[in-house]
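Q: Given only this backbone (664 positions), what sequence would you predict?
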């Protein structure tokens, strides 16, 4: 009884009762203490119950001695030290738990997956994986987490806090893991290597994506056409085929593209960049494939051939568009158009001649020597010859055809005005209309007249909407062959027109004309409001928005309006989360190109903005403006409570306002 009373005195009457229960109420050396660095706070409840069991005799006396010993530890004395690392502890229980670090002892195991842990608290946290319990909730967005530290990391998204900074480029990060990965950019460390090909990577995620090349795994599938892809990014790009989305737009002409690489190629049209040049003639191209095709001119290579007549061509489109002599001759033979001697002639190697030199049955037919673009007439004339003919007319046509087939290529007919020569009288007749101004062919819709039948045929497509010429690269259709040829320069990078002053080359004559105004100083377009002059009409149109205040482009999500189309497209990425501009060094992505340009200075060290007073340089213009306030003494930000002024807005938020304190 005395022992029990002593225990009551010790537990009730002494101030020790108000101490942390985990510091003196655990009967074993494994008890949790307040000074313990180990996260084993959940142990205390179980140990507390054990101490409430009746104790007597030597055990009770021993516990009292431990309690007295522990009471002394509140003086700050650390009497228990680890014989391995020398670390000291106030309590023996803390030392016991600490020793598990060295011994590797893990007495607490998961009943589900049998994983073991050193501390009971770690086991309790682990069990949330199996139970799905997520007791920590974000007060801003309501997202829930199973660990407190995960919530703390998540909160930095809302606060914008970036406590981890790079010691090399001073870039800041919200997560320590992101900083570790970023540092490999500077150190060049690539710790993850492919077990198949040996290629090394900076990040494990990049290695995982790379391994799909070897495994042929395609885990991402399109919900529309079920096509599979190895990477999620490729799937997202593919989905634009179905949605029709084209998020990348040209800041100059406003044209849209489904992928950033197509935009980069397109920008070469405006910048004039042509990085691929011919080693023979020096001609430049925007893409490597166009250079390869151009090289066939020098090498004489003609990889595409007609399966009917055997003629070879440099381009596949030329095979499709050429008029095959063999095919046409076979058709005429089947119709029994020719007498037996001519039939025999056509069945021999003559069929391999150039179709443009022997397949037109009348003298007015289109020939390879003719300079006029009247290709549209040939089909009509060929149909006429298929009608049954007899007597002198049939014999005359046969003689003309035989004469045409055996022609040696001489040009016996010459123009009396310009001396241009032709191989056939019909070619000369058509050519003379250029000089006489005769226009025999008129449009039945708008009555416009033309000198050549082919010109009328092309004009009629304006009314019918027919576009028979397709671009073999992008599929765009055109009503006129010349328009197609001009368009093809977009893909080939061909630039026929060069500036006589600076030698810059252009794909179109109109672009050269606009460019020449830079050298001549000509500015034919003037603003009717302020009188400012411009060299191009498009620049004037953009300028007029300043006076009208017009903002014709609006965001579909938040309805915010913009005066420039490219500004609206950049803004919409705030809603979609799209960041098409990627840093080639660290992989960070940006919404706008100017943001990427500013970011690149952190890698290059470029600081284009310098202080005129002290010479200090900055990578961002805004940083220079803030710095100048040191010299000017300007303090544009003031506290609404105490009226104190500051140079930076952040200083207003941080300062301890005396007015605010007194009001409390």
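A: Predicted residues:
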């Amino acid at each position: 009884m005395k022992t029990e009373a002593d225990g009551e005195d010790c537990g009730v009457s002494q101030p020790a009762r108000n101490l942390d229960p985990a510091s003196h109420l655990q009967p074993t050396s494994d008890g949790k203490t307040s000074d313990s660095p180990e996260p084993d706070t959940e142990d205390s409840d179980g140990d507390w119950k054990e101490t409430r069991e009746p104790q007597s005799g030597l055990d009770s006396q021993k516990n009292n001695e431990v309690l007295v010993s522990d009471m002394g530890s509140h003086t700050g004395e650390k009497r228990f030290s680890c014989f391995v690392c020398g670390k000291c502890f106030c309590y023996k229980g803390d030392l016991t738990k600490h020793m598990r670090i060295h011994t590797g002892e893990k007495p607490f195991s998961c009943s589900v997956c049998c994983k073991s842990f050193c501390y009971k608290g770690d086991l309790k946290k682990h069990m949330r994986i199996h139970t799905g319990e997520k007791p920590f909730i974000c007060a801003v967005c309501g997202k829930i987490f199973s660990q407190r530290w995960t919530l703390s990391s998540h909160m930095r998204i809302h606060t914008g806090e970036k406590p981890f900074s790079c010691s090399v480029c001073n870039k800041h990060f919200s997560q320590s893991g992101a900083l570790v990965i970023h540092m490999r950019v500077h150190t060049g460390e690539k710790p993850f290597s492919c077990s198949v090909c040996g290629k090394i990577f900076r990040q494990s995620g990049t290695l995982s994506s790379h391994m799909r090349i070897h495994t042929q795994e395609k885990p991402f599938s399109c919900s529309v056409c079920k096509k599979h892809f190895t990477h999620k990014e490729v799937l997202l790009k593919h989905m634009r085929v179905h949605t029709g989305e084209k998020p990348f737009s040209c800041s100059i002409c406003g044209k849209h593209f489904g992928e950033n690489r197509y935009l980069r190629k397109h920008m070469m049209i405006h910048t004039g960049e042509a990085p691929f040049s011919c080693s023979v003639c020096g001609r430049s191209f925007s893409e490597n494939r166009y250079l390869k095709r151009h090289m066939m001119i020098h090498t004489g290579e003609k990889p595409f051939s007609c399966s009917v007549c055997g003629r070879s061509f440099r381009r596949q489109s030329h095979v499709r568009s050429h008029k095959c002599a063999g095919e046409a001759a076979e058709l005429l033979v089947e119709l029994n158009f020719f007498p037996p001697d001519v039939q025999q002639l056509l069945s021999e190697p003559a069929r391999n001649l150039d179709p443009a030199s022997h397949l037109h049955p009348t003298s007015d037919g289109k020939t390879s020597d003719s300079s006029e673009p009247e290709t549209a007439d040939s089909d009509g004339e060929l149909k006429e010859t298929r009608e049954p003919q007899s007597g002198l007319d049939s014999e005359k046509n046969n003689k003309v055809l035989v004469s045409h087939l055996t022609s040696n290529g001489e040009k016996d007919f010459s123009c009396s005005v310009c001396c241009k020569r032709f191989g056939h009288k019909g070619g000369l007749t058509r050519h003379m209309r250029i000089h006489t101004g005769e226009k025999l062919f008129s449009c039945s819709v708008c009555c416009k007249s033309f000198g050549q039948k082919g010109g009328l045929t092309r004009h009629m497509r304006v009314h019918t909407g027919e576009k028979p010429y397709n671009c073999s690269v992008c599929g765009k259709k055109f009503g006129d062959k010349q328009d197609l040829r001009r368009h093809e320069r977009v893909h080939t990078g061909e630039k026929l027109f060069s500036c006589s002053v600076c030698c810059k080359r252009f794909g179109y004559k109109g672009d050269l004309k606009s460019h020449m105004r830079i050298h001549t100083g000509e500015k034919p377009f003037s603003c009717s409001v302020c009188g400012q002059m411009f060299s191009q009409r498009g620049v004037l149109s953009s300028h007029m928005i300043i006076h009208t205040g017009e903002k014709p482009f609006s965001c579909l999500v938040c309805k915010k309006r913009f005066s420039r189309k490219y500004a609206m497209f950049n803004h919409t990425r705030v809603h979609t989360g799209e960041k098409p501009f990627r840093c080639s060094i660290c992989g960070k992505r940006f919404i706008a190109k100017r943001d990427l340009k500013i970011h690149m200075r952190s890698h290059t060290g470029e600081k284009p903005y310098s202080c005129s007073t002290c010479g200090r340089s900055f990578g961002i213009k805004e940083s220079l403006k803030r710095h100048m306030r040191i010299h000017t003494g300007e303090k544009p930000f003031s506290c609404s409570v105490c009226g104190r002024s500051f140079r930076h807005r952040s200083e207003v938020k941080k300062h301890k306002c005396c007015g605010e304190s007194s009001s409390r």
